[in-house]
Amino acid sequence: MNLGLNGINGNGLNTLLTWLGNKDLENMETEQSAAIVALAIKSPKPFDKIVILSNHQEAKWDRYERFLSKRLATIGRPHENISINKVSIMSPIDYPSIAKVTKHWVDRLSEEASTLSINLTSGTPAMASLSVLIGKAKTNVSFVQTSPSNELLEVDIPLDFANEYRYSASREIASNAASKPKSEKAFSDINANSMPMKLTVDKAKKIAASEVPALILGETGTGKELMANAIHKGSLRADKPLRVVNCGALAENLVDSTLFGHTKGAFTGAEKEHAGLFEQANGGTLFLDEVGELKPDIQVKLLRALQQGEITRLGDNKTIQVDVRIIAATHQNLTQLIEQGSFREDLFYRLAVGIIEMPPLRERLDDLPDIVDQLAQQINQSGAKHPEYKGKIISKSGINFILSQPWKGNIRELWSTLNRAFLWSETQQVDENDLMAAMINRQASAQSEEVSLSYSDKVDIVQLTEKYQKKYVEAALKASGNVKKHATEMLGLKDHQTLTNWMKRLGIDNHK
């Protein structure tokens, strides 16, 4: 029988290393053999030294040493160099502590012995597997085990773990290269058919792959949180926590505690210590929406967290190390806030490393049909829970109307409008008229340099200078689908002939 002991130097030390198993101790009580005794008695080459590791039932160790020594002495085998050694492990299945102990003893015994045999039967599976992993790296180590009936079994572990690991890792790399890239999956929820959005997503993918802080800028409702989620999912921190907070929605007296945590008794009502969002996001990402709303004192603590990677809980003077990637977002003009003294310039430059500007919906006309389709599906799915609800679709005229509107509130305004149109429509096809009725009246400002009007907007055009008159007339014609009657009403003019006269005076062509 080949027990992996070939090549043993008959003049050298032959050592057995084993854990002390429960079965070994149980069988001792009835003077019966278990794995350790069976190996020591039946090994083709007697063991000169037997080293046993254990962390339990210490009161029985002396008896077991005498029991094993007596059994070996009876058959004339070496029996004086037997020791049970106390080791420190967290539990019988705690891999880190078991690995540390195993490595120590394998390194030590393999150096002093010509051959070292390791018992794989006694102990837990964790002990056996780590013995194999560590022992395979030694040229003079072999492995032994027994059957339930205490027969010696051949142990053949032909794997070269180093080569197998490299092979497995190479296969994983090849598999990932052939599959859809992680960043592609991360950004799959973002519609990017329009050129502005394609450029934005391309930039975001590069930022996601790095560890730099990111600052997402854009009007309200442009999807800044969706982009932040995509950046996190496309980063190396994807399997770590993502925590989200709207800084503008936090009560001023709770901002510090929410972000950085607090100790027990730090303020009235602090009945126990609390880990803030920085600690909760440790190793992952923290998304600070509307970061421009943070007060100066909190900006100082945020800057420290970015610069030094440490925070201090409210009511404490002890610093806590954190590893958090910050993604911030705002619809405000931070450079103006800096000029006004309400936002720290040094914090701005810390945040504004990877800058992403989300284009408004009016610049994403190629994305609108897909976005509308997704939103319609969501509305229908939600409505389907009602027994009398019937799914609805948007007509071609409805899509054209949507494309003609500026959507100043971007996706949020579009979502709200579609919900109202689906709710009020009496038919299963939502058309242009349903959408017109669902639009919210907004008073247009005469001070805007870039003019766009929604269907129900109204202005007093006679009060505007000629510089703006042309822009408003063109915007009203676009919003109304070039229907002069409605454009006239939008502009507050007397009749459509008056509008025609204005158009001639302003040099505006109307193709309808």
TrEMBL record:
Coiled coil: none annotated. It holds the Pfam family AAA_lid_14. The keyword Nucleotide-binding applies. PROSITE patterns: SIGMA54_INTERACT_2, SIGMA54_INTERACT_4. The keyword ATP-binding applies. Residues 190-423 form the Sigma-54 factor interaction domain. Keywords: ATP-binding, Nucleotide-binding. It comes from the Bacteria. InterPro entries: AAA+_ATPase (IPR003593), AAA_lid_NorR (IPR058031), P-loop_NTPase (IPR027417), Sigma_54_int (IPR002078), Sigma_54_int_dom_ATP-bd_2 (IPR025943). This is Sigma-54 dependent transcriptional regulator. It comes from Pseudoalteromonas qingdaonensis.
